[in-house]
Amino acid sequence: MPELRLDTLLSQFGYCSRREAPAWTKAGRLTRSGQALLRPDQRAAPEEVLVDGSPVEFPRGLLVLFHKPLGYACSRDPAESPLIYDLLPPRWSRRLPCPFSIGRLDRDTSGLLLITDDGPLCHRLTSPRHEVEKTYEVAVAAPFPPGLAACFASGTLLLRGEAKPCLPARLEITGERSARLFLREGKYHQVRRMFASQGCPVTTLHRHAFGALTLGELPPGAWRQISPGQLA
Ligand code: URA
């Protein structure tokens, strides 16, 4: 990463505004190799700088796996509060570029959500041509009708209001009222609409996996850093 002016670095990585930066540097809060960096116009590579003794967070861009709890909206609109961003460090929301979720989960859906500030990565992971397989754990209110797996796999299921049918999706029935669905696209409320269209309203929905990534033991509301290589 190229060197940045320290006032730019502090504001770009969400620590403080450019106006506040001179007070931060003057107070000796930024160091490189044990030396205080005292001037805001001084330049340094973000990877080399410590702020209050800690490395600059995500100096090459932010990519984390987040366990979205139920009840939170994937939105930045305060009118939709509570928001997933309320659960993430406030400093992240002051970064430039500002991190966002790769795709969305409904307020009433829990599970694996990726958060990044990398626009091209998001485009690659969500574009219909490259859609990564997502795995959903579904519970429904009514018994599954016969032939449901074949219906979802057919590539002919046309949801109301859509111009194109759903891409073929794999369904594994795991219980009398529970199933796992593997999808390679992300139409609006797609899982709920697919099941509802066949007379099976969804009662709970959880995204278990995004490609090869799973939440593991990560509790709801927690996050962990991942590398772009893990998304291959
Ligand atoms: N499909 C849905 O219906 N809701 C989600 O949150 C994700 C996929």
Provide an overview of this structure.
Strands 7, 8, 9, 10, 11, 12, 13, 14 and 15 form a 9-stranded mixed beta sheet that branches. The protein is elongated and about 70 Å long. It has 3 domains: 52 residues, RNA-binding S4 domain (Structural Genomics Hypothetical 15.5 Kd Protein In mrcA-pckA Intergenic Region, Chain A); 85 residues, Alpha-Beta Plaits; 78 residues, Alpha-L RNA-binding motif (Alpha-Beta Plaits), CATH 3.30.70.1560. The longest helix is centred in the middle third of the chain and has 8 residues. With 232 residues, it is α+β, with helices and mostly antiparallel strands. The mean pLDDT is 96. 17% of the residues lie in helices and 27% in strands. The chain contains 6 helices and 15 strands. The chain binds uracil.
Structural class: alpha+beta
Please provide the count of β strands: 15
Parts with pLDDT < 50 across at least 5 consecutive residues = none
Largest sheet: 9 strands, mixed
CATH superfamily of the largest domain: Pseudouridine synthase I, catalytic domain, N-terminal subdomain
Number of structurally distinct domains: 3
Helix content: 10-25%
Assign the CATH topology of the largest domain. Alpha-Beta Plaits
Number of helices: 6
Proportion of residues in extended strands: 25-35%
Bound molecules: uracil
Radius of gyration of CA atoms, rounded to a whole number: 22 Å
SSE pattern = EHHEEEEEEHEEHEHEEHEEE
